[in-house]
From TrEMBL:
PROSITE patterns: IG_LIKE. Keywords: Disulfide bond, Glycoprotein, Immunoglobulin domain, Ion channel, Ion transport, Membrane, Signal, Transmembrane, Transmembrane helix, Transport. This is Sodium channel subunit beta-4-like isoform X1. Coiled coil: none annotated.
Amino acid sequence: MASVDSTGSSVSGRLRSGDLLPAGLVVALLLGVWSVGGLEVSTGKVSSIEAMNGSTVLLPCTYSSCIGIKNLYFNWQYNDNGTMYKYVEAVIPIENVEPKVLVYHERVEFVGSAKSNNISILLYNITFEDEGEYTCFARNPKEKNRNHSAIFTLIVVDQMKEVDNTLTTIIVSVLGGVIGLVIIVMVIKALVVHFLLKDDEKNKECLVSSSGNDNTENGLTGAKADNKGTPKA
């Protein structure tokens, strides 16, 4: 039976209402963990590429899921001014099991592998009409059909732009000059120190020799004086 306080409200009822706050926090935390470890697809650090007309390009895409996958569905689509054209699609039953890929474009080849979570494709003999956005899409039923997509942009050109290396050349030249100058200064310093040390050694030798000569001469002079001062018997 619920007790009633002075205000007439049920204490047990208030306790049950208060218990909802921790429960809400737990649900929020669980949702946060779910979203962090959920399915993600990526086209890599670079989301676009420039390629020459007539060449073959790789449209990269990988997927990841901390929870794991089951019957992962994926596809590649090309956005042609708002109209989406499907190029490939497949279902990966479980991890490390290769899918049966359906290809809907004659110049497209699936080159991915379930063993490396790779769902990339190759586009052969590209033309200017192939330029645009390509969407890599995946859906994981194991995560209550959580889905994710990534866009890769293809730019088709007549010829590749020449990279201007002028600034790089200038920087390398300046650094080379500075390093060379430092080496020359160090060599000159070493030579100067070497010659100064040799001069000091010579000066020391001269001082020692001069001091020895002075002592010898002083000894001889003293001996002569003693001989002269000695009286004859």
